[in-house]
Amino acid sequence: MSYGPVSRLAVQLNRLRLANPILVASGTFGYAREMAAYIDFRQLGGVIPKTVTPLPRLGNPPPRTVETPSGMLNSIGLDNDGLDAFIEKHLPYLLSLGTAVIVNIAGKDEDEFVAMAKRLDEFEELSALELNVSCPNVTGGVDYGTDPAKTEAVVRAVRDTCELPIIAKLTPNVANVPEIAAAAAAGGADAVSLINTVQGMAVDWRRRRPVLGNGIGGLSGPAIKPVALRIVWQVAKAVKIPIIGVGGIQSLDDVMEFIVAGATAVQIGTANFYDPGLAGRLVAELERIVEGEGVECVADLVGTLSLPSPSCHFQDVASI
Amino acid sequence: MKLMGLISTPPGMRTDAIETTATVVEQVRMARDTYRLRLRCPDVAKRIVPGQFFMVRPSTGSDPLLGRPFALYDVFEENGALAGIDFGYLVVGKLTSEMSRWQPGDMVRIWGPLGNGFPTPPPGRLIMVGGGIGQTPFLAVSREASGARRYGRPARTISANAERLTLLYGVRSREYLAGLDDFRRDGLTIRLSTDDGSEGHHGYVTELLDEEIASDPPAAVYCCGPEPMMHAVSERCERACVPCWLSLESPMACGFGACFSCVVKVKTGDGWDYRRSCVEGPVFRADELVL
């Protein structure tokens, strides 16, 4: 389902059409209700609520987050009430917001992904599914998204099951993201979200303990923006699939960096925690910059970075 | 068991919260490593009630990145109108170190009010137990309970009972005692304890609570402080069958329920579940918690 007037901000990611390219990232926006005091949802390109799993999950023991230089580590562990509760408690509210709703789902195997997709396919007001094949805080999550064959298989299975556009959210914690992105494309994904969090750790050396209750976690925020840009750039050059850039965006300049590097849309993530009105403001600012750049629409700016591409996409840039 | 079909808005999920830029009005040293910051932000001041909190961060930069939660100390007026909020803080990390250098005129970001706040004080005797910087929420509680000030919009109505208010306040050492003159203004009873005996009772604040419960059992106890202290206070209240509320200080990233960081174990029909202390608390009845 598409929202908003046709404008120069509208973007198309295969079957998914968005009124503008500013989305909010799963896990950083609650179920939207939490943000209602701070943001006009109708301004956004869409919202992606917190990951839903088939059954309720308690999540990891606290402390679940810790701030690190220009970033934060989290190990929430997909704390959620399960799909039934999501459909009953959160979906009606989400679908009333006047913006695109993309449901982020995670299963522990292909069957779980398929069962969830089948159930959510009944809600034709939904705009897309985002497959979380990359959560670093859940056993099995990373393994799934680090294997190209498994990634392709789960995307294909979901695509065969439901009509909704499919986005695969990929992990940066692999040697070769373009290979995984190509697998997602081969499976029939409409787009890939790049990147999920970068695995990291904080240590309290005096107590000889990790700071997070779960030991390790996922790094997000401005600290990972260069990593995300590098991966968006590499995937854009290597694979023909629309990219949704995510990682440390907190200003319009950040948005533009992702767009020229090859992202058709972006997700605002950690910044929602410390600047909850940001995503809405960025849409207005983006409108002005597109006007100033003298292009017809924002899509004309995607991938316009003119630096020479890395000589080898499948190697660590530092080693080239 | 997870709640189903119930919910929808937890008590501390504030639809009236706002995010705004606030101006630093003054910075006052209260005690060792302890300061009171006054921010001009009338829209937050009008809405907030005792025990609620707000998040504060610098207006620019990304290190420190996240806001930090601070409890309301009091609101203040300028030219007869509510103008902003005061909060007390202890310098413990990156943001609070930077904060201690903020000057009048500096602009900062604030969002709130957040959380549920303390319930309106019961008729009868109220004992507030504060440990360390955990005494700061109790100035607003005692000002409201003594009838010195009203909070919220519309203003909350309560029956004033200043002579039945007691603050038990414990710190490591006398140089950490903060804001005693503010507390004394409204005529409540104050008893102090220090770990090193440099002021008041030599020992724990919970020993003072034992004496108070034995001599004149209160209608309720409100408590905020280090976790072991809150644990000890809630045990004593349970034994004495005195209702006890705890204001928790869980690490949080956003303050409004989006991040799911600040979870605490809350009892349910068949065990316990993690609940976000920012929107379900930060004030909980002690007997609801798995401590």
Written account of the structure:
The complex is a heterodimer of chains A (320) and B (291). With 320 residues, chain A is of the alpha/beta class. Chain A has a single domain (11-319), classed as TIM Barrel. Chain A has nine helices and 16 strands. Chain A has helices spanning 82-94, 110-120, 141-145, 148-161, 177-187, 225-238, 252-261, 271-274, 278-292; strands at residues 11-13, 16-18, 22-24, 46-47, 65-68, 71-74, 102-105, 128-132, 166-170, 191-194, 198-201, 203-204, 209-210, 216-220, 243-246, 265-268. In chain A, strand 15 (243-246), helix 7 and strand 16 (265-268) form a beta-alpha-beta unit. In chain B, strand 1 (18-31) and strand 2 (34-40) form a beta hairpin. Chain B has helices at residues 42-47, 94-99, 137-145, 180-184, 205-215, 227-239, 277-280, and strands spanning 18-31, 34-40, 53-58, 68-71, 74-78, 81-90, 107-114, 126-131, 165-171, 189-194, 201-202, 220-224, 244-247, 263-268, 271-276, 283-285. By secondary structure, chain B is an alpha/beta fold. Chain B is globular, with a radius of gyration of 18 Å. In chain B, helix 5 packs parallel to helix 6. Chain B is built from seven helices and 16 strands. In chain B, the strands form three sheets. A seven-stranded antiparallel sheet of chain B has the order 4-3-7-1-2-6-5. Chain A binds chain B through residues 27-30, 33-38, 50, 56, 58-59, 62-67, 69-72, 74, 76, 79, 81-82, 84-85, 88-89, 93, 221-222, 250, 270, 272-277, and chain B through 2-5, 7-9, 13-19, 55, 57, 62-67, 94, 109, 111, 250-254, 256-264, 273-274, 279.
